[in-house]
């Protein structure tokens, strides 16, 4: 499956007007092995991308175009930075042409179709493609991603919760009570996207903190499905998302009760070993406390493990940039793996601080 | 025209779902001489106001209603916190019933109808009422406001620029060159209102600074019309508005060339004397530099006068809370005057700092 | 103990240069039954208060003075808005003169002296006064507060956690497991005070989210001591504070496991009944989600009760303005009660939104 | 003067604990032609840089060291990201060893020693080195920079004002009145550095806007000296800096009166032509309005030219990231030129938006 050396991957982006779209453009426009061939938006057909996103002036000369004119079947891979439901409508045709797909929406995240349809209020139009698709969390599914034709790129919250809890429950580990997990998560406002909505106006979201989706959030079943796959059985997780007055960044505070027989575990060592070879997961030294700005605009996800008073409650603190490791950076990481490129190609930016 | 003692003014608000609406409710719900009788919004008919604005829980028990059900003609005064064009459509009927009007939109700000129609893209439907209306900047028009039936409440930018420049040009003063005035103004985001728009999303407006409306802004002709009235002749003003990543607050940096014959003027003394009796205009001591948070949520407007190196350029720095003195507080100040109440009734809040 | 009608309480403030100090000044300068007689700061002796806090221009004419010149023993009550350790050094003298004390620092919060000395790294200099002092959380200790000479004003975090959990554990209630309580708390930056420190610079704290004090925070033993008093036995609480890039506001997400025998409890009704008569505790309707801005600059604390899927985990969401109900407003509430005034005198401000 | 191909420049940084220091590290750690050999801080000797700046974890393995241990004379170039006065104390020794110097403080910005000493309150210890030093604004001094041994890296404000006004006055151009120039400038808070000061605390600077330094700012004489060099004569400039509640970004609104004989000038074309070959100056299309986020974390400076109503006032809007083109990026740009490297080596990052 490795990509031919010396040539560049032809990449198309469908629906590039949102924040995951502009972030893909930022990353891909400087990727050493990528040739951006098309970016589509029916509504903005003809508009130079840099007119909408002035940070791209001088870096991206493409204009938005329609899917038809884009001739996406000539691409090696197409990213969907679209509303839910768009990727599955075009998947068949692209796959038939040998074009691979990385969907940043939810079409290929949930393997359980009933769950998908309940949470996303639409029928799933290609169950067969869903069945072959891969959940694109490289650190859990590296082998499958490398061989995938279709990637469901994980949601932002699931990325933090899954990587934060995986070492505790995967491969038969019985270190914590899997029925009383709690994920108290906090997200920057860009996670809500670039839609014009009152609730994410500056004057509404600034100098304010709130919870939302406590009664139910689409990322909850996504997390649960993957956790159960890891744990090999039912998992009980309480998930409470909150909105933080910052543009980028996600912080998940995870609580897990240590099982009596696992009280002697060296959790710090466990995490360090688990992620020792991962380029984008940084287990911080014992006693550390992460802050979101330390990963702003980078693809790094940081984990700190805390166990107050050496008691029976483990606290795992996980941070990422929701638009990078939580979305577009992870999508590029998937692409790299799918095309036999170095996993960190185009993803080695240092985070912006301050 | 004084209001009968011991009774409360019956007040209605049309279109209270925006920021000037909620700010009116905050101020009027604690005003000692006001009885809030109705607040209208066709779209939100039946919704308790406090459900939309949780800060009002326990303070305002009204629900939104329709204009028809509101029976506004029974009010002593009606505030219009509506889009432009709404007040003029209802003015005739209200006035006929003896109800006074304070319009926070632009229907009664510009006396020149052609100018109004050019900038607001609509015909003016009641030129006669416009002719009798008063520009509600109390510090410049106290007498007229006290006797007014219809008030055009000033725009936020005009309030700062007019009060900042008035002492230099009013009453025949020839202290500065009136053809080269510059107003470099900066506004918090709430000035753009509560409309769902991409440009004022948190993720767009936060951690960002920009100019806008440089080629033309509706407040420009409003300022010019009033300045020319004060100066008794043509005035040349350059007006550059900017957007600041803060919710409330406006800061205007005004530049005026001192005329050669006025170089000996004590401008600090001039301003102090001019506003000595004003409850809501605070001329700061010489050498001061104002900051917007010092007036956050209060009706005070602060002015500092600077003249670097005692040269020929006078710099006047003016701050206000755009939603209070720049909008709803000023409207209440107008109401107080119209009904013979103490001018600062219900407006004596201390600003919130930090 | 009621204060003589028609006269005003003479109030002094020690150490008014911090945020709790300016907030006391904002509230007390408009309190109908208070006469501010002195505010002390050795360092700023002679400086008009309004020069440091320009929001007070026109509202407070006092200048800072030294404790000696302030003649605090003539006050009816003295607020200490000082570093820890100051109030206890002056308490004896003031009490002897009949002056009551409300300490906003920690000198009279912890009844257990060993705990105090471990966490605050100083000996307690007046154990006898500590023994007679009252923990000033009115909603839990109304009777004692009314009769107190010395109040330890609660910390900001404890206020939210205690009022959020009290209905579940007080008076012998056995509704939740008291050994596995979790408080995931988020505070605005003003909670860190006005000290010049790198970690709370704008460029460090803005657009950022972090946890801190996970290994131990001074408010933890304070919360635990009070919880154990309520529960009548040992309590196990995990407390994780986080820093939110907003000036004011505190949001506590509390997690409690419902005991099997309490699964049928109507928790919404429980909370509504518990706080039905409280002026400053607002239990929101079922299904509500609070946001901190709804209490900005007001003394209201809001609670929402959530129980996802009607399961065994109760989530209690609590918000307050950390400088008002979490500090200075609560102190004034205590004063009102101590002097027989209406509990909400001077505390009826509507929150500022947006 | 070109650097030997295939080898890397050895770079030292003195005083890397401030924001310009961490920004240098971000840029230099990914520079293809640089080997970072030492970063000094007496106070933090031994501390790994990444412990202070967690964004550098995994990218910079250096620890802070003392100047003595750093052996800076072995470097090809040393950056001083220090307080004023440090670079001039070490310059002699470094130059003697053949090490070049780029000072990000003010030691080599002002050619007039009396002016330096008046504004920076210290004697200048090496007037001869100052005399040979070059003002490192590449777009104005490319030739001199390429041959320089000592660079005074421009202040942030001067960079925007000088590049914004240069086309109007350089090379004998007489397009505007040079006696009435106005620069109304707005800066993000990181421009104040990482010192622990009350005025730049989050709780002070957030949700606030203010002017400062109106009576005099150190960048004023720096701008004037360079403007006069360009114009070949006296220049009168009013400079008003303001503080914006954002971390990074600078926005300068420049006002210039067009001379009667220059009224027919096509200013848009003038600017486009002047900067056509500059990699880091982007003249936006006519009618554009820049926003600071479009250059966040990039070395691009953007200019928009506005002339309202085709009148006699020219408005030039200039933006940059104050820490990149306004400081560390510009310093790297200077280094590139001094060592014969491509001017944009290590500086081609796309700005971060949102």
Layout: helices, strands, pairs:
The structure is a homotetramer of 354-residue chains.
Chain A (H helix, E strand, L loop, with lengths): L8 E6 L4 H10 L5 E7 L8 H4 L14 H4 L6 E4 L5 H11 L3 E4 L9 H8 L6 H6 L1 E2 L2 H9 L3 E3 L3 H14 L11 E8 L13 H4 L4 E2 L7 H13 L5 E8 L5 E8 L9 H8 L6 E3 L17 E6 L6 E8 L3 H15 L16
Parallel strand pairs in A: 1-2, 1-3, 3-4, 4-6, 5-6, 7-9, 11-12
Antiparallel strand pairs in A: 7-10, 8-9, 10-13, 12-13
Summary?
The first copy, chain A, is 30% helix and 19% strand.
Describe the structure.
- Four copies of one chain form a homotetramer.
- Helix content of chain A is 30%, strand content 19%.
- Chain A folds into two domains: 159 residues, Rossmann fold, CATH 3.40.50.720; 166 residues, Dihydrodipicolinate Reductase, domain 2, CATH 3.30.360.10.
- Chain A contains twelve helices and 13 strands.
- By secondary structure, chain A is of the alpha/beta class.
- At the A-C interface, β7, β8, β9, β10 and β13 of A face β7, β8, β9, β10 and β13 of C.
